[in-house]
Amino acid sequence: MSAMMKPPASLTRGDLIAGLAQRFRYLPRTHVDAGVKGLLDLLCDALAAGERIEIRGFGAFSIHRRGPRPACNPRTGEQLVLGARVRLHFRPGKELRERLVASQVSETASRPLLDRRTP
């Protein structure tokens, strides 16, 4: 990617497969596709089973469970109970945090002084 091009707003599964296929040109794209799909399936299955996933340097995925709780309908004042909820939680690893901070510093340093008011 050239210095003038901005990165995409989000990285899709297709973008990931295309990037890996270009980096590992000796692998057929179908194998890269199968590898990415297999990895994502493993991650999803582990999280669905309530397991914690830790990828050193990148971060950790875990499930946070919230039990049922009382609530009030603001329009009618009716008391009700909200059901239990499950939330995916991601905690970035040290290396990822350091790279993000470094990218913010270099991005801020490359902007003209008048544009540095807001990040």
CATH topology tier name of the largest domain: HU Protein, Chain A
Please report the first level of CATH classification, the CATH class of the largest domain: Few Secondary Structures
Rounded to the nearest angstrom, the distance between the terminal CA atoms is 23 Å
User: Strand portion, in percent?
Assistant: 15-25%
Mean pLDDT, rounded to whole units?
A: 86
Please give the order of strands in the largest beta sheet: 1-2-5
CATH architecture of the largest domain: Irregular
Radius of gyration: 21 Å
Q: Low-confidence segments, ≥5 residues, pLDDT <50? A: none
Note the overall shape: extended
Order of helices and strands: HHEEEEEH
Q: Return the domain count.
A: 2
Number of helices: 3
Determine the structural class based on helices, strands and strand pairing.
alpha+beta
Portion of residues within helices: 40-55%
Biggest β-sheet description: 3 strands, antiparallel
